[in-house]
Design goal:
Two copies of one chain form a homodimer.
Chain A: H1 14-28, H2 35-42, H3 46-52, H4 56-60, H5 62-76, H6 84-94, H7 103-115, H8 117-142, H9 149-172, H10 177-188
Helix pairs in contact in A: 1-7, 2-3, 5-6, 5-8, 6-8, 6-9, 7-8, 7-9, 8-9, 9-10
Chain lengths: ~200, ~200
């Protein structure tokens, strides 16, 4: 049995820490707030904060890891035999359903991201991960090459269109974002069924 | 009459300088080449190089300013009475027509951009400029709000889809990029005419 550690930190409410950090970034500007400032504000020591969030970027993009997990689960649940483009689009939209109490911090996160090149670059890597997950699903289910023009373009249009719709929602939207993203994607994307399989 | 300056530099072939810089970035890595290295390689002094290109980013993104100029001209030439979405899409594709001798350096530029967060961030600002030009054209010609969901989403889908198509072309495409971008946009974008004006 391991000896009990002295001074072990209490359970950390990671989502609460991220929410506080986002509020500080909005109030003071992303580049003007340090990890030390955040640790001080939430009453954690620096090392504990870094155990949960390796960077300020992760504090802002925190919600995206859960969205990726939801997307993987949604895609795994798609029955065989359905149109993979249509199924991927529906699964992607469902992965953007946030709890009501997270809406305001989600909006603040998106506004922050739009205002910072560093945050956008961090997010671009995340978008490429999501695009790759979707492209792989479509390629596997549709028996196509993951790097074919159609699979590459449709997966990119879905993810980049979704990001654009979230940004529009953050500026102008009311209510939850998923419904708005669905509406926006219907406006821009060619329906999958118009093309032969 | 002003006195003749001594040691006045000869006319500079800006496009040739950019081409050399892109080749150096590809060979040695973008972050490993300095403006001084480039000045030395092309036989210019540092100040002269900076007069033409304020940063390494500008050396890579050099072609984009001309594409923006072509886009503005194409849009100005669109006759009244045509569908503004369709006209914007056609004008955007025409703005991507490069001279044959620029194809290889265009491809290298795009590969570099994909490999560097700093270059991508620099390019995102350029894409937003292009998107804004297109959204303003559609809003003016279609009597709509430039920030409406439809205008914002369609202009973003066009520009981001075009960028994705150029990136696909840089990796896999043969021949000139404009035709590939046109084909890719036909795959992903809902035709404008399916929606009421």
């Amino acid at each position: 049995m391991e000896p009990k550690r002295i001074g072990r930190p209490p359970e950390v409410d990671a989502e609460g820490v991220a929410r506080t950090a986002v509020r500080m970034f909005v109030e003071r500007g992303f580049s003007n707030v340090t990890m030390d400032d955040i640790a001080h504000e939430v009453g954690l020591n620096r090392r504990t904060l870094f155990r949960y969030f390796r960077s300020k970027n992760e504090l802002v993009w925190g919600g995206s890891a859960e969205a990726v997990t939801r997307l993987r689960r949604e895609l795994a649940d798609v029955p065989t035999g359905v149109d993979p483009f249509r199924a991927a689009q529906a699964a992607y939209v469902r992965s953007l359903v946030f709890p009501d109490e997270a809406l305001e911090v989600t909006r603040q996160r998106l506004v922050l991201i739009a205002s910072s090149d560093a945050l956008s670059a961090f997010g671009a890597a995340n978008q490429e991960l999501v695009r790759r997950i979707i492209a792989t699903f479509i390629a596997d289910r549709g028996d196509r090459d993951v790097d074919s023009l159609e699979v590459a373009m449709r997966s990119a249009a879905l993810v980049h269109g979704g990001h654009d719709a979230l940004m529009w929602w953050a500026r102008f939207g009311a209510g939850p974002p998923a419904a708005l993203v669905e509406q926006a994607l219907r406006i821009i994307l060619a329906p999958p069924s118009v093309r032969p399989a």
